[in-house]
Request: fold
Amino acid sequence: MPPTIAPENTSAITIVEGDITTLDVEAIVNAANEALMPGGGVCGAIHRAAGPELATACLPLAPCPTGQARITPGFGLKAKYVIHTVGPVWHGGTRGEAELLASCYRNSILLARDDSLRSIAFPAISTGIFGYPENRAAEIAVSTICEGAGEIPNMPQIYLCCFSSSVRQHLEAAWRKHKKVPD
Ligand code: AR6
Reply:
């Protein structure tokens, strides 16, 4: 089923629910590992959909330290590019996880902007295998993107792609809070 567009659709952020590998955007973001190897979760799905050339293209770009981002072609994906970013593993919040997660969003957006991309879709980085609490991760995603919208000229259109209704609810709540809209 194609992802649905939420009522929270605005010029800054569009929240969609579904499989990020099916989205018709210029770049999708991969929640990668530092070695940029095919893994589980959304990373596994992206590598499967893109085909083996993606792993080959990643090799010379590794390692990618946590919080940084790299760009490759999308190969078999609808998206022309994949931006690989490495989210932090959740250790309870005392190891700079929030700053590192914000860096993932910021650096990915800057890469997209530098390549003049018009649209980019993010999964909920770090909220799966890496264990970041969904509500806190949603706050960081929304606030970092909104800060970027105020500071970065020619920001691409940003889609936040949720794979579960709980992530979607956290993102929508964070977005409402940010816009100061009552529940
Ligand atoms: N489309 C959109 N979102 C998805 C999809 C999909 N097809 N599949 C999963 N998600 P995770 P992490 C959501 O675990 O926590 C890998 O092995 C998922 O529900 O993919 O950053 C990497 O190689 C969750 O909300 O990434 C790393 O080693 C979100 O994507 C490690 O896992 C992120 O979950 C990265 O862990």
The first helix runs from residue 41 to 50. DSSP finds five helices and seven strands in the chain.
